[in-house]
Amino acid sequence: MSLLDVNGLGITFGGLKAVNDVSFSVQPGEIVSVIGPNGAGKTTLFNMISGVYQPGRGTVALDGRDVTGIAPNRLAEMGLSRTFQNLQVFQEMTVLENVLAGYHLQERGPVLADLLSLPSMRRRAARAREGARGLLARVRLDKAEGQEAGSLSYGALKRLEIARALALRPKILLLDEPAAGCNAVETEEIDALIAELAAAGIAILLVEHDMKMVMRISNHIVVLDHGEKIAEGDPATVSRDPGVIAAYLGAEETEAADADG
Amino acid sequence: MEARRKWIQLAVLAALIAVLPFFFPSGYYYRVGALIFVNGLSVIGLVILIGYAGQISLGHAGFAGIGAYACALGPQHLGLHPGLALILGAVISGLLALLIGRPILRLKGYYLAVATLGFGILVSMLLTNERALTGGPDGISVEDLGLRALLRDLGWRISGGEFWYGASGIALLVGAWLALNLFDSPTGRAMRSLHGSEVAASTVGIDVARQKLRAFVISAVYASVAGSLLALQNGFITPDVAGFMHSIEMVTMAVLGGVGSVLGATLGAAILTLLPQVLTVFAEYEQLVLGAVMILVMIFLPQGLLPSIARRLRGRGE
Q: In what residue span(s) does the ABC transporter domain sit (chain A) (predicted)?
């Protein structure tokens, strides 16, 4: 049994099949990348798996349980966590508070205890704060913990989102272009972090445009084009696949021309 | 660090409440002060709803009306002590908010504003039209709380104005304390995060609908208690307390002072309560002034008075 099983997943937007009949699975500790040209349906696929969109067809199973169309907060409780391509940071909260929000499931308690600031609430919050500081150190944002998140650079915000997603202690982590907008050093750091997480047993599902990074760290690659899966396999197999070269690598030049993601 | 900021804010508020009476030119100002504190209390409730959770309500005066009329009708019809009637009003308001909030909070933006507006109008119509029970538009008298008589028996003679100044001040402090506790708590963070991004909030496990509902219920209880205190200190109440203009007034106070800031909201309440009292011209043009204040704040100080000033001071310090 796989950790994540995606089976025949599809969705239609106004007559357009944005994603059609996509199936694949992810094992614990495995790094699976979803690649494809812009508009291939990668983010839409992520949104369906993480419960942001209701799939039109097909099923998603997590740990053997059918979780198709379940609300994101329920999926979070079951160990699925994600980041966003177009940053979804809590801008007006501090950097530390952003990560603390990721500890919500661990630090939440009776609302009355929160209103009265009872010692039980302060203990819960203190534990979460300790963990959050550890995660911030891990993504090298510990010095910025008191800053408003909105004041961080793009690359720092990307790392902040990863820290927040890790706060959930996920079994599977969906990363939507974690290295986009990061410089070479930052990309390498994210690269190393992903490998470290996978080594710790967390399954990683990755959308990334940096092909070098994808080829280097992925165990398995799923290739989408026009919403359909056109190939999958290990990096070597996929990069030799003639269909992939035609659809994806051939499209790279036009993609570079309009690199708005 | 956060905890220290909380106590500083509370200390500032407590000091102001304690010191202001020394500057009062007449006993009348105790009444004005008490009114400011009561308005401040209901506006702090809106800070939780609008400032923390990012939801708008244009019908919160409806809950103030429920609180006020609970204190008028509870003692008359159920033989309740006015203090218990205040609690009953708060419970009814909270339950009602829970009931209507569930479907209403699924709505977003102006749909939510319109739905809450409808609720406020409904309560105000009921209070106006059910003459047999509520006395209609002429209002109804409210029994005395009886606490002042108790204090007198204990040998502490204070005027009604002084008593309500103190009682409302304490209520405001408690309200501010609770709201500041909430701000820096798991629940408060969850509310504030959905203000930032609902999608992201739900992917970290926050039940968005539930947190909105919590903010709505808590703010309804604030408004209800404020309405009760208003009824008790005036000894008389009319349906205006639940009227649309009162809802607008509350939101304007919150927005003027700073909708994310407990202390700012109190400042907003103070300014807009004082204006018509000090400059009687404003009483006639109150609606005009409210509208103008709203527009000017939105254009020039979208964060509100106090946060904008604080930011400017901080900017200069660096």
A: 1-251
